[in-house]
Specification:
CATH architecture of the largest domain: Orthogonal Bundle
Structural class: alpha+beta
Largest sheet: 4 strands, mixed
Number of strands: 13
Strand content: 25-35%
Number of domains: 3
Helix content: 25-40%
CATH topology of the largest domain: Helix Hairpins
Shape: elongated
Strand order of the largest sheet: 8-9-13-12
CATH class of the largest domain: Mainly Alpha
Number of helices: 9
Order of helices and strands: HHHHHEEHEHEEEEEEHEEEEH
Length: 306
């Protein structure tokens, strides 16, 4: 049992912070949709442009802080185990939520390392931690209350499918200055890269062979009837090039093979999706008289064993 004097003052101070679940009005077993719904309702209610009560801005930041932790499985797990001390480096529980802060003139800059697009433009990226970006998430950049927010310039950039899969760099000019945008591997159609002065959204061209769903990739692969019946090997396209795989004898039309970890890199987090290959058994369009006789013999043979 701890005596008050034995508990570090820093941790005692954190004990006075309000519980994140209580802030969002949810239980510890709340679903992701319930968290998001409560967060949106409370954020709209307490946003300083809408709510002029004293302390509205502080309440709004408190709500955002709670949601940022509870919406992240990793941060939520640490919070459930250690409480607020999980994000205080001096408490010894493994890291800070906000990252390191720097002062330059009258401004303080905080760089977040909790996810998001770091170093996309040769600098540090800000994640979802800025509470005043909430309306950009919910309303596509529009502030419904009319406040002081100014719409940032927005650029759309079209790239090839494989550039999105493997990552690439693109340059463009904004207000007379050239910027190089680093497209992270795993980017998808609609991926939005935020910069302090403008936003860039990615449009990805479709691929003639690969079809993407999330981080998984699907392809149709044609094989001849003889290969489906007798088995053998075939060369299939993958994101890294051709790959030889074995076909089992008696492979049925529309058989699907999954190659684990051969899909697209996850944009956030580690690992990759899977590659699914669906076989399309091709039948001959024309047969000679001898060929038709052989097919009839094959049918009779198959009927005798089925």
């Amino acid at each position: 049992m701890f005596v008050k004097s034995e508990i570090p003052a820093k941790i005692r101070g954190m004990a006075t912070k309000k519980d994140y679940y209580e802030i969002l009005g949810v239980t510890r077993g709340a679903s992701e949709s319930e968290l998001k719904s409560n967060y949106r309702r409370l954020a709209l209610k307490w946003h300083p442009d809408r709510n002029k009560e004293a302390g509205a801005e502080a309440k709004f930041k408190e709500i955002n802080e709670a949601y940022e932790v509870l919406s992240s499985p990793e941060k939520k797990s640490k919070y459930d185990q250690f409480g607020h001390a999980a994000f205080d480096p001096s408490a010894g529980f493994g890291g800070s939520q906000s990252g390191q802060s720097y002062r330059q003139g009258p401004f303080t800059y905080t760089y977040s390392t909790g996810g998001g697009f770091e170093d996309l433009f040769g600098g540090q990226g800000q994640g979802f931690s800025d509470p005043f970006n909430i309306f950009e998430s919910f309303f596509g950049g529009q502030n419904p209350f009319g406040g002081q927010f100014q719409q940032k310039p927005h650029y759309s950039m079209t790239i090839e499918f494989m550039e999105a899969v493997k990552g690439s760099e693109k340059s463009f000019v904004h207000q007379g200055r050239q910027y190089t945008v680093k497209i992270p591997p795993g980017s998808d159609d609609g991926t939005r890269i935020r910069y302090s002065e403008f936003d860039v959204s990615i449009n990805v061209k479709p691929h003639k062979t690969f079809r993407r769903e999330g981080n998984d990739v699907f392809i149709y692969h044609e094989i001849p009837l003889t290969l489906a019946i007798l088995g053998g090997e075939t060369s299939v396209p993958t994101l890294e090039g051709e790959l030889t795989i074995k076909i089992r004898p008696g492979t049925q039309p529309s058989t699907t093979v999954r190659l684990s970890g051969k899909g697209i890199k996850r944009l956030r987090g580690s690992g990759r999706g899977d590659l699914y290959i669906k076989f399309k058994v091709m039948l001959p369009e024309k047969l000679s008289h001898r060929g038709r006789q052989l097919v009839r013999q094959l049918v009779e043979e198959l009927e005798s064993v089925l």
